[in-house]
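Suppose you are handed a protein chain with no further information: no name, no annotation, nothing but its sequence. What can you learn? This example shows the usual starting point.
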Amino acid sequence: MGVRVRVRLRLGGRAVVTSALVNSGFESEEPEVVLPLSLAQALGLEPSNEISSYSVAGGGTASAFRARKPVMVKLVLGDVEAEEVSAVASIMPGESEVIISDRLAHELGIVIIDPYTGEWCLRRELGSRVRSSARPEYWEA
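A reasonable first move is to predict its three-dimensional structure. Written in structure tokens, the prediction is:
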């Protein structure tokens, strides 16, 4: 199943609320979010000439264009207000889902309790609350 969370992605006055896959295997030194091309276009993101390459399971690689500007990412929770975090946005043609890096998950305070059942919580809720995964939301690839 994996862990998915509801997020609001914002660039200036444009914002989109969607689900995002929390991928602990997506290791990054800075908060980073991978966006499908159609979602990046909805936010008005423009790709730069800088290309990021990622190692994927099975020894392959995937490439993405870094956006010229960072996006603001905020968890959408019905019961508590979350902080907004600035993240590098990478636009990946062919990807249909928003993917959160380990560093962005850290900055958002996400703790994965059970990756199979999709259970997670906020760091400050550890031991006192369990949240369920959001439904996947797919964007045109």
